[in-house]
Amino acid sequence: MLDRVRDADDDADGELRPTRPRTRWDTGRRGSAILVLVAVAAAAVTYLFVWRDSPTSAAVPPLVATASPPTAAEAGETAESTSGAGPAAAPSPSESPVSVVVSVVGLVHAPGLVTLPPGSRVADAVDAAGGTREGADTVGLNLARRVEDGDQILVGTRSEPTLPPSAVVTGDGAVGAAEGGGGSAAGPVNLNSANATELDSLPGVGPVTAAAILSWRTANGRFTSIDQLAEVDGIGPARLERLRPLVTV
């Protein structure tokens, strides 16, 4: 066969051409094993790279229900309900107090402040002050009159000119009976002989304080010192110093 090929080549070109040997790979058993190992290693490396780069699935936390912001309509309703509630209602001024405090002075056994339930009357206040003393005038008092907080009840006498007539002085200073008007004294006023009008003429001494001075004199006797004015209800240190040069004993 080789000869035929050579003849053909000789006939065509007129000269003999050498034939090129053909390369043939023979790996053998050892080479085949190495190739298999290389292929397996390449597959393993490829798998590792592909597995590492592939996205992993992460556990999604459960959704927590959150309150959605109120709509404009809901906000308006809330504001209306809040404004409708408003602050706690303040007690009405017309509500009756738990108790009333009344001053009872004059010819009573225990002159001073008495605490009474609302709706009490002048008679209740006089009884709370120990009742009237001998010679007290109750004709000028309306014993059925209701007393208010801050009132003062003067229990006087008709026979003693140094005591004012019985009267009820309200908390605002209004007097329920006639009383002497204020006047200026010509000289120092004698605390042991002055009547309500003369005492009322002193600066800073009104009908209530004048009655308190007379009440103290009736209960304790004569003043022996001007300093004893400090024991009279309504006369403090400042008022005492103001009255000191204007009175005498």
From TrEMBL:
Segments for region (Disordered): 1-25, 68-96
Pfam families: HHH_3, SLBB
GO biological process, one term: DNA repair
Transmembrane segments: 32-51
Composition bias, Basic and acidic residues: 14-25
Keywords carried by this UniProt record: Membrane, Transmembrane, Transmembrane helix
Matching Gene3D superfamilies: Outer membrane lipoprotein wza domain like, Photosystem II 12 kDa extrinsic protein
GO molecular function, one term: DNA binding
CC terms in the record's Gene Ontology section: type II protein secretion system complex
Domain of life: Bacteria
Limits of the Helix-hairpin-helix DNA-binding motif class domain: 197-216, 227-246
InterPro entries hit by this protein: Competence_ComEA_HhH (IPR004509), Endo/Exo/Phosphatase_dom_1 (IPR051675), Hlx-hairpin-Hlx_DNA-bd_motif (IPR003583), RuvA_2-like (IPR010994), Soluble_ligand-bd (IPR019554)
PANTHER family referenced in this protein's UniProt entry, alphabetically: ENDONUCLEASE/EXONUCLEASE/PHOSPHATASE FAMILY DOMAIN-CONTAINING PROTEIN 1, ENDONUCLEASE_EXONUCLEASE_PHOSPHATASE FAMILY DOMAIN-CONTAINING PROTEIN 1
Protein name: Helix-hairpin-helix DNA-binding motif class 1 domain-containing protein
Species whose genome carries this gene: Rhodococcus rhodnii LMG 5362
